[in-house]
Write a structure and sequence with these properties.
Layout lengths: L1 H24 L8 H13 L3 E6 L3 E7 L7 E7 L26 H17 L7 E7 L7 H7 L10 E12 L3 E2 L3 E4 L1 E10 L3 E2 L9 H18 L7 E10 L5 E2 L2 E10 L2 H22 L2 E10 L2 E3 L1 H15 L18 H4 L4 E9 L19 H18 L2
Helix pairs in contact: 1-3, 1-9, 3-9, 5-6, 7-9
The structure holds zinc ion (ZN) (2 copies).
């Protein structure tokens, strides 16, 4: 089977690149992936794959039923949305949509899953059980996965395991991170509104200054709140927006801070939330301002199931050799809504190297100069197909 998979993947590789470039030229924002969704459905239907569109708006689901007997159902997920970033690199397939680009590699994820689907549909006479191909909208908004689940993507047939992947420019193409345990962090957003009393900049003693209170709170978040977390645990708080006032000599009434929290364990996440509230109350009392803190939980940690991870690692070794596994890396503080699926059914999320091996400074995800070494797509397709075959035939 492994030799067949390699051979078919190599035959289809140029088609996979062509699909990725086509998708790259027409990036679309979350829930507006109309053209992308149509494109996906057309490729699947042309391959004779049963396809449903319009799930969670622009989501597409294909199903391949194995012809060698009944069995389990494995779900493969790709995210299909792009970013509101103007692409800076000029090439023959540069984004044709001004101010939008696939800067997170979701064009690669989509093309890779389409390639995987084409190969699996050619191998279906050898498969037992089902493969569910899930093309999910709005990952960047971190809401697409939840909507797909609400609309029944894990049912009918019931999904027993799920696989997903993200292209990863900080490791070279040819390498894959596939470890058991946490891969990506939990992510929260927060809003802080500080209300004081406005007045003249020359007479601060008649005011209650929200800017001064906000800067004290920011320092407290970066020092005491984080210092209360066990140093062996990973956690980060970043204030990414601090807005207050509009003129040289007017102390304003309010200041607003927005930011994000990342962590890998529920206990750590809960402790940060509690400590942030404590810091807000303390600074509020000390400074005489009113501080409203609202924390919005976005996604939980993406954690790989140990049994499934071990199966997938063996599949990777079989198809690409032991050297392709990259184990010497810590979990990333990025986050993913794939965690909504993998909390419900055992899941594995792979980080597939897409950096150019001969380039020291590959642009990061979400950069206007992000590019991928497309050779990574051959490996990702081969690994997905091998893992599906190993899972369904195990
Ligand atoms: Zn992204
Ligand atoms: Zn992404």
């Amino acid at each position: 089977m492994t030799d067949d998979i390699k051979k078919i993947a190599e035959e289809l590789f140029q088609d996979i690149i062509r699909m990725r470039r086509e998708l790259h030229m027409y990036p679309e924002e979350g829930y507006k992936e109309f053209r992308t969704s149509e494109y996906i459905a057309r490729v699947l239907r042309n391959a004779g794959i049963e396809t449903t569109t319009g799930i969670a708006g622009t989501g597409v689901v294909g199903i391949i039923k194995g012809e060698a007997g009944d069995g389990k159902t494995i779900m493969l997920r790709a995210d299909i949305d792009a970013n509101t970033i103007r692409e800076e690199v000029q090439c023959e397939y540069t984004s044709k949509v001004d101010g939008m680009m696939h800067a997170c590699g979701h064009d690669g994820h989509t093309a890779s899953l389409l390639g995987t689907a084409l190969i699996l549909s050619r191998l279906k006479d050898k498969l037992k059980g089902n493969v569910k191909l899930v093309f999910q909208p709005a990952e960047e908004k971190l809401t697409g996965a939840r909507k797909m689940i609400e609309e029944g993507v894990l049912d009918n047939p019931k999904v027993d395991a799920c696989l997903g992947m993200h292209l990863w420019p900080s490791i070279p193409s040819g390498k894959i991170i596939a470890k058991a345990g946490p891969v990506l962090s939990a992510g929260d957003f927060f809003d802080i509104k500080i209300t004081g009393k406005s007045g003249h900049g020359s007479q601060p003693h008649f005011t209650v200054d929200p800017i001064s209170a906000g800067s004290k709170l920011l320092n407290e978040l970066y020092t005491t709140v984080i210092r209360k977390i066990d140093p062996s645990e990973a956690a980060v708080i970043s204030v990414c927006s601090f807005n207050a006032g509009s003129y040289y000599n007017i102390i304003p009434d309010t200041a607003e801070l927005k930011g994000t929290i990342r962590s890998f364990k529920k206990e750590v996440q809960d402790k940060i939330h509690k400590n942030m509230q404590f810091a807000a109350d303390k600074i509020g009392d000390a400074e005489g301002v009113k501080i409203d803190l609202a924390i919005h939980k976005l996604v939980d940690v993406t954690e790989n199931d140990s049994v499934l991870a071990s199966l997938v690692r063996n599949s990777i070794k079989k198809i690409a050799g032991e050297d392709s596994l990259e184990d010497n890396v810590a979990p990333s503080t990025g986050c993913e809504d794939f965690s909504f699926y993998s909390q419900k059914v055992p899941g594995v999320f792979l980080l597939v190297g897409c950096g150019f091996p001969d380039k020291a400074d590959n642009s990061p995800l979400h950069s206007s100069t992000f590019q991928m070494d497309e050779n990574c797509l051959l490996l990702s397709v081969q690994v997905f197909v091998q893992a599906v075959c190993d899972y369904l035939l195990s």
